[in-house]
């Protein structure tokens, strides 16, 4: 200790040391966010009445006071981003995968694009030549519109109002179903839809009887030639057993349906997914020890078998979290008395405090169910491409 | 908002029937247009990265599945062979008895 008045000789080494000294480098000082702030930033806490900390902390300078940078840089994103495919169903039409390290806004954008902005082919115009069934014309047409068609929409072009329907923008199907008198009721299924690669067969009535009869489409070539993919595999609806109508004896349906390209925004029939949804990864934490009898009741209370019993030795048991991923947030494990009936005379417990239900904010479990036009992984890739195109358009317009 | 040069970013849609979005960007000194363009550019690059990672993972998964399937089929074929042999032995035993 130097007293006042005494001169202290400061060496060069001391000066360099003082210049480079940063208190944050000291090994005992904790870096990063304090744990309670880290919890707020990365987890949604699902409390008994409502979830809290649901909004993501977006401001880049939010944690400047603590010295932590909250901005999203491309390098950090590229390093931390991961995709894990969990399951593809047998017929290849359902895909479950995990996306880790992405913001909720972008995950939601992908979901919305999958539902509304990916193009598909669906029936738009239905020409009904004969319909003596009990299903009305317009109801029949509406049902035809909802039938999913297994054709890659990328091969086709959009049909605008001024265009003629031709082999590049229309797919034509025919349906002719009859139920003879004396037969029982007949079902009209989608397998009875026949593809017409040469275009429409219905003739437009024109006063000129000398010229060639015009049909409702102007196909210059057979679609079997223009699209080599369809030369050997004819275009069919995605599923052959969808019921369109039922016919009683003596009823007949004869119609031609034209399918065009469109997006889900205009009408839901053009949505390529049956549905697409995501949920955040659940995290179940036991804040304190749950032993013996309580452990048994906890394990029994959960309908998804998230908890397991572990032997501690001495005949005592403890509850552990075995499968947090299966948690559906039913909150049975935190309910009064674990949701069991309360017998009169037994002490009523308060809300159970030692189980904490949480969701990880940047880990999404996506599930995409395709209707059959394209496999779900291709659909997701297309959705990402569409978001990229939108960014490009904004940049182009800003310049 | 997670962009370090941005102090305020927001959007509003004046009426749902009109296709119009009002975007407001406030920056720490750089021209707002450039910052918006840079942000869109980064978003595009992020999307490309997402796509590449996703494609890689799906193809890896499909390969794994194909491997597993091939192994299963091999095992099934082996089991069937064993069964056939056992049946043959049994029928031989019956004959000798």
Automatic annotation (TrEMBL), chain A:
Gene3D superfamilies: DNA-directed RNA polymerase, insert domain (2.170.120.12), RNA polymerase, RBP11-like subunit (3.30.1360.10). One of its GO terms (molecular function) is protein dimerization activity. Residues 94-397 form the DNA-directed RNA polymerase RpoA/D/Rpb3-type domain. GO terms for biological process: DNA-templated transcription. Keywords: DNA-directed RNA polymerase, Transcription. InterPro entries: DNA-dir_RNA_pol_insert (IPR011262), DNA-dir_RNA_pol_RpoA/D/Rpb3 (IPR011263), RBP11-like (IPR036603), RNAP_Rpo3/Rpb3/RPAC1 (IPR022842), RNAPI/III_AC40 (IPR033901), RNApol_insert_sf (IPR036643), Rpo3/RPB3_RNA_Pol_subunit (IPR050518). The keyword Iron-sulfur does not apply. This is DNA-directed RNA polymerase RpoA/D/Rpb3-type domain-containing protein. The keyword Transcription applies. GO terms for cellular component: RNA polymerase I complex; RNA polymerase III complex. PANTHER family: DNA-DIRECTED RNA POLYMERASE (PTHR11800), DNA-DIRECTED RNA POLYMERASES I AND III SUBUNIT RPAC1 (PTHR11800:SF13). SMART domains: RPOLD. It holds the Pfam family RNA_pol_A_bac. Belongs to the archaeal Rpo3/eukaryotic RPB3 RNA polymerase subunit family.
């Amino acid at each position: 200790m130097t007293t006042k008045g005494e001169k202290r000789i400061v060496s060069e080494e001391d000066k360099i040391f003082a210049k480079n000294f940063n208190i944050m480098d000291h090994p005992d000082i904790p870096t990063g966010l304090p744990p309670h702030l880290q919890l707020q930033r990365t987890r949604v806490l699902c409390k008994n009445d409502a979830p809290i900390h649901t909004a993501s902390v977006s401001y880049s300078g939010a944690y400047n006071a603590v010295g932590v940078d909250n901005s999203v840089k491309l390098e950090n994103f590229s390093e931390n981003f991961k995709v894990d495919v969990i399951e593809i169903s047998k017929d290849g039409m359902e895909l479950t995968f995990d996306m880790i390290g992405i913001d909720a806004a972008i995950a939601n954008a992908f979901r919305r694009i999958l539902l509304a902005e990916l193009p598909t082919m669906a029936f738009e115009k239905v020409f009904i030549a004969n319909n003596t069934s009990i299903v009305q014309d317009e109801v029949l047409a509406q049902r035809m519109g909802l039938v999913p068609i297994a054709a890659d929409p990328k091969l086709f072009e959009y049909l605008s109002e001024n265009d003629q329907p031709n082999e590049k923008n229309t797919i034509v199907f025919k349906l002719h179903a009859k139920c003879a008198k004396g037969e029982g009721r007949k079902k009209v299924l989608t397998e009875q839809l026949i593809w017409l690669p040469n275009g429409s067969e219905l003739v437009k009535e024109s006063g000129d009887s000398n010229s060639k009869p015009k049909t409702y489409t102007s196909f210059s070539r057979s679609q079997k030639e223009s699209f080599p993919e369809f030369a050997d595999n004819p275009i069919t609806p995605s599923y052959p057993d969808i019921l369109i109508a039922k016919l009683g004896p003596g009823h007949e349906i004869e119609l031609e349906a034209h399918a065009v390209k469109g997006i889900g925004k205009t009408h839901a029939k053009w949505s390529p997914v049956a549905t697409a949804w995501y949920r955040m990864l659940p995290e179940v934490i036991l804040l304190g020890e749950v032993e013996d009898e309580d452990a048994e009741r906890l394990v029994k209370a959960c309908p998804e078998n998230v908890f397991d019993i572990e032997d501690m030795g001495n005949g005592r048991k403890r509850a552990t979290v075995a499968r947090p991923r299966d948690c559906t947030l039913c909150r049975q494990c935190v309910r009064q008395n674990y949701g069991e009936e309360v017998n009169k005379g037994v002490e009523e417990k308060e809300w159970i405090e030692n189980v904490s239900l949480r969701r990880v904010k940047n880990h999404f479990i996506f599930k995409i169910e395709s209707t059959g036009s394209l496999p779900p992984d291709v659909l997701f890739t297309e959705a990402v491409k569409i978001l990229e195109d939108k960014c490009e358009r904004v940049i182009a317009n800003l310049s | 908002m997670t962009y370090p040069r941005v102090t305020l970013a927001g959007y509003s849609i004046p009426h749902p029937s009109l296709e119009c979005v009002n975007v407001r960007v406030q920056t720490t000194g750089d021209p707002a247009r450039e910052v918006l363009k840079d942000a869109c550019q980064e978003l595009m690059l992020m999307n490309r990265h997402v796509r590449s990672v996703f494609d890689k993972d799906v193809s890896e998964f499909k390969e794994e599945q194909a491997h597993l399937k091939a192994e299963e089929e091999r095992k099934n074929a082996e089991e069937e062979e064993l069964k056939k042999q056992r049946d043959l032995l049994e029928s031989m035993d019956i004959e000798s008895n």
